[in-house]
Write a sequence for this structure.
């Protein structure tokens, strides 16, 4: 018995690979990077019979002729030359509704002569298309186990595990018949190569001759293989063309014997009919705008009641703790530092969940790929392409994974431009800032009974980020001197019914990540802020305390009013205020006071910390049980004017739309580009633009 089995999960993009990975591994998943490259490495644990097993989800690829970095990762693992990732079995996923295309990659893996099991997915979709597959006959022709599965409904998984267990116990023979006669493609060169590596299959030998320069071989071996190529006049291009032709010839024969397909002239498929609507040259764009409009309306409309409930819970919790806990520094820290900071974030969890839920819904139904298709023409005019849309839309959720998803863009210039402008997309961390500011200065008006004015303003902020991103890309493309031809090839998945369970799980997971990630930062910052805003120069603080004590003795009936004034005076003389006053002259032209200045600084750790910072600062100053919104509405300048006027709030919203206030985003940009040059350019470009446009907004609105 083998101690542990490593299985590589491979297949074409959009073949149902991710669904099968999730179904097999459940919650036992880890995400990292493949060694030496910025490509996601997803692994999961499961048990196959008596074998503890690790499943490695390799990036989707169409064939053994890779073009992108992620395809090279999968290729090297399958060729057995990845020094860090070794596999015992290949679990190959093929889309039953598009079997002919999937069989090319399958046939190449078969010819490596390694243990492989084929999982047929999308069988329900194939049935709807009128496609019938003789699974037993297909298994006979391919010479490998073939199992029909439905990962969405957990069907066929036990049979699949049994097939994997059987092939672990009895691996394929190296002498088993190949899918095509690979040796005839370059017989003399292959024979000589196999004197060096006698255990390699003919097809593996062929790929060593083609790609040995990319494999981790010593200089002497590299030179030896190169000499074999020269000696036998080995031609990469002709060999590849001959191989693909032979494979498709045999695939066509198998398809005729084992697959029954409907007449191609039959009635149009449902997907085609829907695409006539959703991809219409005019109507498609109206539908896209409507979808985005409904998204942002829903973020306000659906989240209102749970947000009110959470706010009520935290308000009453604060009141209760102030009543039952003794007056002490730790009570002040707990109530006015930690709970106030966390309460300012947790209240926005419903909006985060709704945003992620709708984005997952768009991906699950297949509409997200249509957004890329519709956007390609516009994107090209500003230096991007349709594939840039997926990272940019993902940026509405979180910027870090969105930037990492730009790896799928082959063109280096378009990839760099996408990375640089994606942070302009309003990520979920900005949502709490937008919500609190909109609720302060925008009335809760409804038009036609269902259009929310606040929702329209929210949509305007998101659209502003998109417009600025496109303009920034247009300008940057003039300065980035990378010349490389670009092609936009996108496979449009079929329309599917959404998996509500998957959407619900995603919403819960994202809410948990948001609270835990933001919570860690907020806990630290809240404690630091509480200290800075509760303490100041010793002599000044002692003087204030003495003055307060004498005033209470002289006027005991005015204790509550004196207490409030004392807290205000303490904050005005605290370390936080001293720091804030230093930066206030730089931000006052934008309409901001020193407290907003402190929040801007803490927001560089994470944008959502803005709300927690304000909650802490105002809780320290005021000892009442008003909500944060009420405290901000009551905030005034020394001359009595409201701090959060319409002009100031609009200016602050613009600043948060445009400014680069996320250290983790800058770090991932450095990792993806391999240099600090572009994160520095990005920081000064975005923050400088934010300052200028916020000043213009405040000046005009005032």
């Amino acid at each position: 018995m083998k101690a542990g089995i490593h299985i590589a999960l491979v297949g074409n993009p959009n073949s149902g690979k991710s669904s099968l990975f999730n179904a097999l591994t459940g919650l036992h998943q880890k995400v990292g990077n493949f060694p030496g490259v910025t490509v996601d490495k997803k692994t999961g644990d499961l048990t196959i019979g008596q074998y503890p097993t690790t499943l490695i989800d390799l990036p989707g690829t169409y064939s053994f002729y890779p073009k992108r970095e992620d395809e090279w990762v999968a290729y090297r693992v399958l060729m057995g030359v990845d020094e860090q990732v070794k596999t015992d079995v290949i679990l190959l996923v093929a889309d039953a509704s598009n079997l002919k295309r999937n069989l090319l990659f399958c046939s190449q893996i078969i010819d490596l002569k390694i243990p492989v099991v084929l999982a047929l997915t999308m069988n329900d979709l194939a049935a709807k298309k009128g496609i019938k597959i003789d699974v037993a006959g297909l298994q006979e022709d391919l010479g490998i186990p073939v199992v029909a599965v439905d990962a969405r409904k957990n069907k066929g998984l036990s049979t699949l595990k049994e097939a994997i267990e059987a092939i672990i116990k009895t691996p394929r023979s190296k002498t088993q018949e190949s899918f095509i006669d690979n040796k005839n493609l370059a017989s003399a060169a292959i024979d000589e190569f196999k004197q060096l590596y006698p255990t390699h299959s003919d097809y593996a030998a062929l790929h060593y001759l083609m790609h040995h320069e990319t494999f981790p071989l010593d200089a002497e071996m590299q030179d030896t293989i190169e000499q074999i190529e020269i000696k036998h006049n080995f031609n990469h291009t002709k060999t590849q063309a001959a191989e693909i032709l032979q494979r498709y010839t045999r695939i066509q024969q198998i398809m005729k014997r084992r697959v029954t397909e409907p007449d191609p002239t039959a009635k149009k498929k449902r997907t085609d009919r829907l695409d006539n609507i959703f991809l219409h040259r005019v109507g498609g764009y109206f539908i896209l705008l409507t979808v985005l409009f409904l998204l942002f309306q829903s973020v306000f409309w659906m989240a209102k009641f749970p947000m009110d409930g959470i706010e009520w819970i935290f308000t009453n919790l604060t009141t209760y703790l102030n009543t039952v806990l003794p007056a002490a520094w730790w009570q002040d820290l707990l109530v006015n530092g930690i709970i106030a900071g966390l309460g300012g974030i947790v209240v926005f969890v419903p909006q985060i969940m709704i945003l992620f839920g709708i984005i997952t819904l768009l991906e699950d139904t297949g509409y997200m790929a249509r957004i890329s298709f519709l956007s390609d023409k516009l994107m090209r005019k500003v230096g991007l392409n349709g594939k840039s849309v997926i990272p940019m839309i993902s940026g509405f959720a979180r910027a870090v994974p969105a930037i990492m998803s730009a790896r799928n863009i082959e063109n280096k210039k378009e990839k760099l431009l996408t990375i640089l402008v994606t942070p302009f997309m309003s990520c979920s961390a900005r949502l709490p800032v937008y919500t609190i500011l909109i609720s302060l200065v925008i009335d809760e008006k409804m038009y036609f009974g269902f259009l929310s004015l606040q929702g329209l303003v929210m949509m305007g902020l998101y659209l502003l980020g998109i417009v600025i991103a496109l303009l920034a890309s247009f300008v940057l493309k003039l300065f980035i001197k990378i010349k490389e031809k670009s092609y936009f090839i996108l496979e449009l998945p079929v329309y599917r019914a959404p998996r509500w369970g998957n959407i619900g799980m995603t919403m819960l997971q994202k809410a948990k990540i948001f609270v835990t990630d933001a919570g860690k930062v907020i806990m630290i910052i809240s404690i630091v802020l509480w200290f800075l805003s509760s303490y100041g120069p010793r002599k000044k603080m002692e003087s204030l305390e003495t003055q307060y004590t004498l005033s209470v003795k002289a006027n005991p009936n005015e204790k509550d009013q004196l207490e409030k004034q004392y807290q205000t005076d303490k904050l005005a003389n605290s370390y936080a205020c001293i720091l804030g006053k230093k930066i206030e002259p730089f931000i006052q032209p934008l309409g901001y006071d020193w407290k907003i200045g402190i929040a801007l600084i803490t927001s560089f750790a994470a944008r959502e910390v803005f709300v927690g910072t304000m909650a802490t600062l105002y809780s320290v100053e005021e000892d009442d049980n008003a909500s944060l919104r009420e405290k901000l509405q009551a905030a005034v300048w020394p001359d009595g004017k409201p701090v959060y006027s319409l002009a100031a709030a609009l200016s602050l919203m613009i600043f948060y739309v445009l400014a680069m206030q996320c250290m983790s985003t800058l770090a991932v940009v450095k990792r993806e580009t391999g240099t600090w040059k572009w994160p520095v350019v990005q920081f000064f470009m975005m923050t400088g633009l934010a300052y200028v446009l916020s000043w213009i907004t405040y000046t005009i609105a005032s």
